[in-house]
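Please fill in the sequence for the structure shown.

STRUCTURE ENCODING:
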C-alpha cells in the first residue's frame, strides 16, 4: 500500500494505477502460491484413504477469494489519498 501511494504522489493518478496493478498482481501471486502449498500439504495429510475432496477444494476457493479481495481493499484504502 505504501508503494502504491508513493507512486501516486510522485507520478499522479497514472502512476498510482500502474503501481496498484503491479502490486495487486504480485500480492495475488504471492497469496495463492504460498497458501496453495499449505492447502496441498494438508490435503495429503488429511486424507487417509477415506477423506473427501470437498474441504481442500473449499480452502482453495477461499484462498483465491482472499487473493482477489486484497487489491480491492488496497484501492478502497488508498484511492482518496491520490487525487
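FILLED IN BY: designer on duty
SEQUENCE:
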Amino acid at each position: 500500500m505504501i508503494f502504491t501511494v508513493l507512486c501516486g504522489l510522485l507520478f499522479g493518478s497514472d502512476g498510482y494505477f500502474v503501481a496498484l496493478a503491479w502490486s495487486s498482481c504480485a500480492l495475488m501471486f504471492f497469496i495463492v502460491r504460498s497458501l496453495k502449498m499449505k492447502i496441498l500439504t494438508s490435503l495429503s495429510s488429511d486424507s487417509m484413504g477415506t477423506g473427501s475432496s470437498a474441504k481442500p477444494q473449499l480452502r482453495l476457493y477461499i484462498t483465491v477469494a482472499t487473493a482477489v479481495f486484497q487489491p480491492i481493499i488496497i484501492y478502497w484504502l488508498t484511492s482518496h489519498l491520490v487525487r
